[in-house]
Amino acid sequence: VSDRLEAGPAASTGGGLTSIEDVDAALRSESYVPDRGLSTAIFLAVTLHRPLLLEGEVGVGKTEVAKTLARLRQAELVRLQCYEGIDVSQALYEWDYPRQLLESRAGTGDLYEERFLLERPLLRALRAGANAVLLIDELDRADDEFEAFLLELLSEFKVSIPELGTVAADSQPMVIITSNRTRELHDALKRRCFYHWIEYPSLEREVEIIRLRAPAVSERLARSVAAEVERLRSLDLVKPPGPAEAIDWAAALAAIGADSAEGEAARATIGAAIKNREDLGRTLA
Amino acid sequence: VTNQLVQFARALRTNGIPIGVGGVVDFVAGVDLAGDLYWSGRTTLLSAPDHIPVYDRVFAEWFGEIPVIESRRRGGIESEISLHRGPTSSPYEMFGRMPGAVPDDVLPFVLDLPLRRSRRRRRSRQRGDLDLRKTLQLAGRSDGEALRLARRTRRLAPRRVVLLLDISGSMSSYARRLVVAAHAAIQEHRRWEVFCFATRLTRLTHELSHRDPSTALSRAAKELADWEGGTRIGEALKQFMDDYGHAGMARGAVVVICSDGFDVGDSDVLGEQMARLSRLAHSVIWLNPLLELESYEPRSAAMRAALPHVDLFAPWR
Description:
The structure holds two protein chains of two kinds.
Chain A: H1 20-29, H2 36-47, E1 52-56, H3 62-72, E2 76-81, H4 88-91, E3 93-95, H5 97-106, E4 117-119, H6 121-128, E5 132-137, H7 144-156, E6 158-161, E7 165-168, E8 174-178, H8 187-192, E9 194-198, H9 203-213, H10 219-233, H11 243-255, H12 263-269, H13 277-284
Parallel strand pairs in A: 1-8, 1-9, 2-5, 5-8
Antiparallel strand pairs in A: 3-4, 6-7
Chain B: H1 2-14, H2 21-34, H3 37-45, H4 52-63, H5 76-80, H6 93-96, E1 115-124, E2 129-130, H7 132-141, E3 151-158, E4 161-166, H8 172-188, E5 193-197, E6 201-203, H9 205-208, H10 213-223, H11 233-249, E7 254-258, H12 267-280, E8 283-287, H13 301-306, E9 312-314
Parallel strand pairs in B: 4-5, 4-7, 7-8, 8-9
Antiparallel strand pairs in B: 1-3, 2-3, 5-6
Helix pairs in contact in B: 2-3, 11-12
């Protein structure tokens, strides 16, 4: 096994997060406003080196958690977007066949060497170890076989490449998994992970989120948007607006110079928050 | 203290939350590290949103008040599908008392399934993209010269099937056979999903995936224990769409609804939800056992609201 297969120097593992309050403050400093439950889950996942499984309504910031953690730990964000039929060659590694073919015509050397290996997200995260935050996005879209493979990888943090040998992570990368529950994940995988269900934020927290994410929005406008979005969520819509939509809507209102989410300005910009025709009808009625 | 934590985890388990030994160990370690009893438990012991209300109830019984949670919830999953185990005085006790033998008059779900192109590939003689891996292998046999090009095309895979079974009073003579047939179907097709509904919806895929029919049925019966009479097809379908269908389960799938269409709910809701479903699904099949009767005509308000959005309307046979 070539030296380059080994991961780089191990980074600090905890990133200086020694309590729930630390996590809370650190996330806020990176413009993410967590609730106590999420801070607890992240703290425990980091401290006990466990993957964190995040579920929740659309637009509550599941993916954003991983991005924020990567910035916070000054680690590389390695994202694996799952889809149906995803397999090892797309997720872990692939051989560079065109170059191997050329090499084989030249008739020199070994075709299965490190220089012909194409790194895919999982291998990349393994090699980076604690220098990476691995985001496995929408795992419920992948099929059972892939999930079983992933479970093995997440318990050992090593894989074997038949032609080359075993690649093991020096230190574990932080792993965030998201799922939209279109398929029940395996019990074994769920047992491996810590779990957090992300709820819609409270009114106060949503105002804070909007102000942090869209600095051009005034306190008054943020409050008005948060209150209106809360009302929309109670309307039993097909796609209730999440915090992501609230931010977009507030930014849109600020851009046209409105100072509240009411009247003509609200009607003109509602498309930023409501993206379904039936919902639009129900909202405006 | 540790003992108390272990007992609490055990109480959660008897209330239907699946917790392994490892989970309890993590819980004890988590409370020690994080110092937050309530949230450490939620992180380490739960694995689905419908566990949360059960957790809150048991937590309150053990430790008094649960902390004020600042977040807001949408009424969907948590309140509707609870793990509440009420007295089993419903006619659906019969699932629980199922004898080991499977009734022999069960008709299997036999569907001629439409295929879709899968992302997975298979080898092909003439058509498709180059399969470089195979080509390289073949080249090795001819001194490194690629004389033959291997090709591969996308494999075809059957579509996901979602079964929505009406088990309300008017369907009682079919309900048991439907669930048995669904069990058999799940054993054979791993990607199928099963839901039962009367006035509300319950997902049974997990319960029915147990191989032994009588175990699977008694597990299913536990989930259906708080069953009440009457059918609200529209509301049940809405719940399916909100919690599962829209999130991706119904997309491109074949959705099979088995119901006689006797509905005490609002038929406008049903029509609206059927329209939503038919836009998302590959096809919608409505199996109505009453169609076997020659005199039957789909005149109920519910059937009239649903039929414009149904691709195939057929008896169960």
